[in-house]
Amino acid sequence: MRSFDIDAIRADFPILQQEVKGKPLVYLDNAATTQKPQAVLDALTRYYSTINSNVHRGAHTLSDLATREFEAARETVQRFINAPGSNQIIWTRGTTESINLVAHSYGRAFLKPGDDIIISAMEHHSNIVPWQLVAEQTGANLKVIPVTDDAELDLAAFEALLSENTKLVSVVHVSNALGTINPVKSIVAKAHAVGARVLLDGAQATPHWNVDVQDLDCDFYAFSGHKVYGPTGIGVLYGKTELLEAMLPYQSGGEMIEKVSFDGTTFNVLPYKFEAGTPNIGGAIGLAAAIDYLNQFDRQLMANHEHQLLQATLDRAADDPHIRLIGRAQSKAGVFSFLLEGAHPHDLGTLLDQQGIAVRTGHHCAMPIMDQFAIPGTVRASFAFYNTQDDVERFFAALAKSKTFLL
Known about the structure:
Aspartate Aminotransferase, domain 2, Aspartate Aminotransferase, domain 1, globular, alpha/beta, 14 helices, 17% strand, 17 strands
């Protein structure tokens, strides 16, 4: 196990060594995308420069080598989330496509008029709009778990929504806009008690701690490579075998075919049934490299470090009467979402960028929860394990300077 040496860790990430606007970069936009360690960059370079080839059907050495690494990457992801089998790991472009796959292949096929779909008010748009479309197309009802003023799910309201008509519950494991960590294991158990299936959006959970899909007992779990220090354009859908086997393919052509004739087509076995066309081979290999990098460390130590940074940020913010914190859940990931009194989020984000501080501003693809709090959006600083206490100090120094222009 590698020691948690923050200076050595930061040296693994080339992009963190640069300056922005003449200032050392302080990268606090990790909930949007994380930076990549040299090990991931090397894996991508090695694949494209030494074994670049299509997978599975090539009768030559490069194709065989690429296929081995591609399928080894699937097994790496299987172990990462403790899935029972690698055939339950479906490659997608990211969490959004994973959710859309379930909406299309499970929701449209198995939901009918009068069935209930339950989501929450804190969902990312990619876990709202697909279910709106499914509800319109199937006649199912879309119901929403309310969120309290402290940005926690109203679990009593959730239990009241559950009934024998509930067929699918789809909720976020960790809110990207608020940082709220939801009690998903309990949610899964309550949904299963009425016979419903559960999809968990894990895009913001997998970067921070180990996820065990067998312990959660969820039916589907989705996450994105680029949120967990891997490449963009690669994602994962885990599903229970019996459900994946019952579902029809989301897209057709190429790899998902077993046999085609003009009399009909038979589909490939799992997981290939859901992987039409040439996959993102380099992305899968790069994601495996990112997971291998993370597995060098004690992930609990990493999570503790991130929590200390968040707590230090919250403590500093509590002393500033001009800061309004958005999201006061008792259980939070490393997301500090806030407003500065009298300042538009975009203006503050621009001034912070002038000082080398990278944050996200806007509604964070979570417009319904922004509407609930009657705000146009927030400034969001989000932490990764390579951030430091010095990053927090520089963030607040830049914030203080920005206030002189805005207040």
